[in-house]
Amino acid sequence: MSDTVLVDRQDGWVEITLNRPDRLNSFNEEMHMALREALDGAANDARAVLLTGAGKGFCAGQDLGDRDPRKTDKIDLGYTVRTFWAPLVRQIRALEMPVVCAVNGVAAGAGSSLSLACDMVIASEKAKFIQSFANVGLIPDTGGSFSLTNLVGPARARGLALTAEPLPAARAEEWGMIWKCLPEDDFLAAAREQVAKFAKGPTFGYAQTKKAIQAAETNTMDAQLDLEAELMFQCGLSPDYAEGVGAFLDKRKPAFTGEKPQ
Fold first, then answer.
1. Cβ–Cβ < 8 Å for 206, 171
2. What pLDDT shows up at residue 154?
3. Which pLDDT value is given to residue 74?
4. Of 39, 48, 50, 183, which residue is the least packed, with the fewest Cβ within 10 Å?
5. pLDDT at 121
6. What's the CA dihedral at 6, 10, 13, 17 to 10 degrees?
7. What integer pLDDT is reported at residue 110 of this predicted model?
8. Is Isomerase one of the keywords (predicted)?
9. Which residues contact 94 (CB under 8 A, 6 or more apart)?
10. Among residues 104, 122, 251, which one has the least CA distance to residue 178?
11. CA distance linking residue 62 with residue 85, whole number of Å
């Protein structure tokens, strides 16, 4: 695998680190392919994922040096989104396990959007989220226009996207955009602890929870009620449900396996 992405396999979970610190972990095509490969591997042999960045920043989005309009007559940014960023977001959202993003510094442009595509964001108090697209005449991509609007509402989404003003992690937590903002010395350990807990939890139930919450972004109440009934039916057939109820009634700690219903 390319060294633009580092993979550290733990007990039931995997830590994936974006590793171009000299470029604030901005993405080139090699890094895209490496991250996709790492996530494919996690889908096969892990029960939770932690995504973070090396160095001082989480991710500055697309490496604009690879998309310099001065070097060619026409830059097809639609191709870049369709071929690289959109599939990456879909892959993260489709993973049947929790994906936690530990934001260690600046998350700008597609880097901010990438963090919000994850199921949970735990950020350092020194982290900032910047919709830097406006500074170069672009729109929030990588699902950013969707995520921002659904997380903070259209008024704040427009303000962030149009001004490109940095949003400190503490304010992002206040606005409900991220899960937690923690001291710089504590946030990564807390993120790792959370992912380790997820890796020992009811993985199938987590996957169905992801499906339900994602569907709620566009469903009507009636459609959501129907979906809940179907997903609850599936969860009720899972070994983790049987183990969870048994452990509760026996007053012991459950030993979840994450297995799917047969």
1. no
2. 98
3. 78
4. 183
5. 98
6. -20
7. 98
8. yes
9. none
10. 122
11. 9
* pLDDT at 6 (0 to 100): 98
Whether the full predicted model's pTM is greater than 0.90, yes or no, is yes
Domain at 5-199: CATH architecture: Alpha-Beta Complex (3.90)
Q: Give Cβ neighbours of residue 10 (< 8 Å, ≥ 6 apart).
A: 196, 199
For the chain, what is the HEC assignment?
CCCCEEEEECCCCEEEEECCHHHCCCECHHHHHHHHHHHHHHHHHCCCEEEEECCCCCECCECHHHHCHHHCCCCCHHHHHHHHHHHHHHHHHHCCCCEEEEECCEEECHHHHHHHHCCEEEEECCCEEECHHHHHCCCCCCCHHHHHHHHHCHHHHHHHHHHCCCEEHHHHHHCCCCCEEECCCCHHHHHHHHHHHHHCCCHHHHHHHHHHHHHHCCCCHHHHHHHHHHHHHHHHCCHHHHHHHHHHHHCCCCCCCCCCCC
* Phi, psi torsion values for 48, nearest 5 degrees: -165, 155
What is the end-to-end Cα distance of the chain in Å, rounded? Answer: 34
Q: Which residues contact 3 (CB under 8 A, 6 or more apart)?
A: 19
At 203, which amino acid appears?
T
Round to whole Å and give the CA distance between 85 and 109: 12
Question: Structural domain boundaries of the chain?
Answer: 5-199, 203-250
Mean pLDDT by 10 residues, the chain (262 residues): 94 98 96 98 97 97 80 82 97 98 97 98 98 96 97 98 98 98 98 98 98 97 98 98 98 96 90
